[in-house]
């Protein structure tokens, strides 16, 4: 399985992760978001170069650390960061560890972005309890709970340490 930027040759029509909002983004909006420099979408290729096992999108973000959070005094506001905006795994590939592969790739790309422009880390919104557990198990730090999501952050130093430990 290879990870690459979304291409016209990727078969978006066959993709189904079980979440219509995520499916719709990949099928209808991912290309135009890239053309308008709003985000970049990366595809984990499945059985062949056109098959999409999973995908995720990254975009830049300005983040304000909540005043009560312990990291608030360490950083000025707003902060430059990268957000893992959307991620989905096709039903045919779910349960095979593809989400972990994609998150690690997003962390790697965030580290590269940091080398070129400086960011404080990778941010993500978890929309349900399973995703909260998933991100916590990968070392993301809980920031705050909002109406329908929990916000998480992986500091750039933690990302760098993750890859240093694997060299």
Strand content: 25-35%
Spatial order of the strands forming the largest sheet: 1-2-3-4-5-7-6
CATH architecture: 3-Layer(aba) Sandwich
Q: So, the CATH homologous superfamily?
A: Gcn5-related N-acetyltransferase (GNAT)
Q: What is the count of distinct domains?
A: 1
Average pLDDT across residues? 91
Radius of gyration, rounded?
A: 16 Å
What is the CATH third-level topology name?
A: Aminopeptidase
**H/E topology pattern:** EHEEEHEHEEH
Query: Percent helix among the residues?
Result: 25-40%
Largest sheet: 7 strands, mixed
CA-CA gap between termini: 21 Å
Topology, pairings included?
Layout: E1 3-5, H1 20-35, E2 40-45, E3 52-63, E4 79-89, H2 98-117, E5 121-126, H3 129-137, E6 141-145, E7 150-155, H4 156-164
Parallel strand pairs: 4-5
Antiparallel strand pairs: 1-2, 2-3, 3-4, 5-7, 6-7
Helix pairs in contact: 2-4
Quick gist of this model?
This protein is an alpha+beta fold. It contains 4 helices and 7 strands, in the order E-H-E-E-E-H-E-H-E-E-H.
Relevant terms:
Aminopeptidase, 167 residues, alpha+beta
Detailed description of the structure:
A hairpin with a 6-residue loop joins strand 2 and strand 3. The mean pLDDT is 91. The radius of gyration is 16 Å and the shape is globular. It has helices at 20-35, 98-117, 129-137, 156-164, and strands at residues 3-5, 40-45, 52-63, 79-89, 121-126, 141-145, 150-155. It has 4 helices and 7 strands, in the order βαβββαβαββα. It has a single domain, classed as Gcn5-related N-acetyltransferase (GNAT) (Aminopeptidase, 3-Layer(aba) Sandwich). The chain is 32% helix and 29% strand. It has a 7-stranded mixed beta sheet with strand order 1-2-3-4-5-7-6, sandwiched between helices. With 167 residues, the protein is an alpha+beta fold.
